[in-house]
Amino acid sequence: MDITLNDITTTMEMHWTVWLARLLAALILCGIIGFEREIGKRPAGLRTHMLTGLAAALYTLVMLHMTTASVFDGEKVQTDPIRVIEAVTQGVAFLAAGLVVFSQGNVLGLKTGATMWLCAAVGVCCALGLLSLAAVVTAIALVTVVVLRIAEKKADTHCKGHASHDG
How far is 64 from 79, CA to CA, in rounded Å? Predict the structure, then answer.
């Protein structure tokens, strides 16, 4: 039984608490971004953003394992970590593109698609242990989305107020 168990399981070079913390960090940070989308009643909200970041983190952890695992030490096996990041980026771009809708002269879903793409990058950062970078990017994203939305609403209100007085 031990031989079979060893054949079907592989341990990672990093301790399980490290990869667990990195996955949870991706889940939390992407959840913060997703929560902002959720309260705005956007098509992709809290869970979608959390899962996007979690998946990106998982793929990145698998890539880290592949680059350090002794099972891949053979001469014929070559790993390219950048390919995993490219695959994550392409996969999320495909999902995000599905959110973008052109309707009656308006483009809808671009910000939600962009935040999903950003969550994938945050997930990659978390998995690589770049938690400070991921946290700073999350904060910058929130400021960008929330503060600029408030500014846009004030500008729209201001412009509409002037338009009604001009007539």
Answer: 10
More confident residue, 14 or 162: 14
Distance CA 115, CA 100 (A): 12
Of the listed ranges 19-28, 112-121, 129-138, the one predicted with least confidence: 112-121
- What type of residue sits at position 4? T
**Separation in Å, CA 97 to CA 48, 111, 120:** 14, 11, 14
Quote the tokens at residue 63.
């890539």
Look-up of token digits 């910058």: 140
- The domain limits of the chain are 2-166
Helix or strand (DSSP H, E) at 161: helix 148-166
Q: Which helix (H) or strand (E) holds 21?
A: helix 16-39
pLDDT at 167: 44
User: What percent of the chain is predicted at pLDDT more than 90?
Assistant: 43
Of 111, 7, 131, the closest CA to residue 60 belongs to 131
Q: Quote the radius of gyration of the chain (alpha carbons, Å).
A: 21
In this structure, what DSSP letter does residue 128 have?
T
Reported pTM:
0.81
Does residue 110 come out as left (phi exceeding 0), alpha (psi in the -120 to 50 range) or beta?
alpha
- What are the φ and ψ backbone dihedral angles of 32, each rounded to 5 degrees? -65, -45
